[in-house]
Amino acid sequence: MSLAIVPGSFDPVTCGHLDIIERASRLFDHVTVAVAVNRRKSPLFSDDERVQMLTEACAHLSNVGVTRFSGLLATYAQSVGATAVVRGLRAVSDFEYELQMAHTNRRLCPDVETVFVMTTTEYSFLSSSIVKEIARFGGSVEGLVPESVRQRLRDKLRP
Ligand code: PNS
After folding, report:
1. Burial class (CB in 10 A: 0-12, 13-18, 19+), 98
2. How confident is the model over 49-75, as pLDDT tens digits?
3. Largest CB tally within 10 Å, which of 13, 30, 89, 114?
4. Sheet with 113-118: strands ordered across
5. Is 36 in the pocket of ligand 1 (CB under 6 A)?
6. Quick check: CB of 127 below 6 Å from ligand 1?
7. Closest to 133 (Cα-Cα) out of 114, 155, 157
8. Is the pTM of this model over 0.85?
9. How far is Cα 21 from Cα 6, in angstroms, rounded to an integer?
10. Which helix (H) or strand (E) holds 103?
């Protein structure tokens, strides 16, 4: 059975992330969305909130689970017997960082392949940072994030 990990910060999950997760769920038998915790940058949403939002957003995907991991992605992927790590590419500008990460992970764990999936053009500009910026200044993020995330952003940024 093939298992893919879709790792990320997901602070918060966007429709672009969801697009990648859905594509991965069609390619692999099982997909685990893994939220990176204990990172240096302090996220807007707590680990629990990020896992919760993803769990709600992925509820319609029967072969997708959500969890968290800390430490090295390669160590985590190996420990769960992952076949692949799936990362989304929006534009050429993503490529350099993603290539570096893929080579690093291959060096650390040669058995786990990195698979790049192209985001739909509709979300090629979208990131969690852009979403937070829009929400912070009262703009609409409708259609950019799942509905439950929209509500949480409102509660968090404009109480
Ligand atoms: O959503 P992001 O911030 O682009 O996700 C990046 C993430 C969390 C996948 C990456 O930073 C990561 O894998 N962190 C875990 C630490 C690690 O394994 N670092 C070495 C790979 S460069």
Report:
1. middle
2. 999 999 999 999 999 999 999 999 999
3. 13
4. 64-69, 30-36, 3-8, 84-89, 113-118
5. yes
6. no
7. 157
8. yes
9. 7
10. helix 92-108
